[in-house]
Amino acid sequence: KTIQLLKKASMKTVLLTGDNSLVAEVMADEVGIDECISEVLPGEKADKIKELMSNGRRVAMVGDGINDAPVLARADVGIAMGAMGSDAAIEAADVVLMKDDPRDVAKAIAISRKCISIVKQNIIFSLAVKFGCLALVALGLANMWLGIFADVGVMVIAVLNAIRAMRK
């Protein structure tokens, strides 16, 4: 289900593991992972991530073991499975999921996309109002109190808009 959710979000999935290639390929096929890179030593994982990132792609790495810590730190976004994860992986990751439910990876990505969208909306709205007020002041059609009212009003609207992220 997680892989389906990630694909629905237009993400390519890659299994990067030190496990036997036969086992890794079967698992990748069974869950619908796009690409499988197997029999990778812990030291080689960072090189593989760097290779995946070389085409300008952004890479999110999900891991839980001590061997994953350098790769979690190297990836654009490191996601550690926190409940059973090693302390090293948790420290190296950008995001720590407190349950070991893989569906939370897709949920975290959806929440982050929603938050980025809201931040962009708030920035555009606040700049538009502030430049509008600046233009009115320059034309002599507004005073300082309208500017203060607009500033506080924009802040309140931005906070109310940001609260929408909690519904995701």
- Major sheet size, sense and barrel closure: 3 strands, parallel
How many β-strand runs? 5
**Number of helical runs?**
7
Which runs of at least 5 residues are low in confidence (pLDDT < 50)?
A: none
Rounded Rg: 22 Å
Q: State the helicity in percent bands.
A: 55-70%
Strand order of the largest sheet: 3-4-5
Distance between the termini: 18 Å
Overall spatial form: elongated
| Strand percentage | 5-15%
Helix/strand class: mainly alpha
Please state the average pLDDT score: 87
What string gives the helices and strands in order?
HEHEHEHEHEHH
Q: How would you sum up this structure, described in words?
A:
The protein is 58% helix and 11% strand. By secondary structure, it is mainly α. It has a 3-stranded parallel beta sheet. Helix 1 packs parallel to helix 6. The mean pLDDT is 87.
Descriptive terms for the model:
single chain; 168 residues; mainly alpha; three-stranded parallel beta sheet; two-stranded parallel sheet; 7 helices; elongated
In short:
With 168 residues, the chain is mainly alpha-helical. The chain has helices spanning 2-8, 21-31, 42-53, 69-74, 87-92, 103-138, 144-163, and strands at residues 14-16, 35-37, 60-63, 77-81, 95-97.
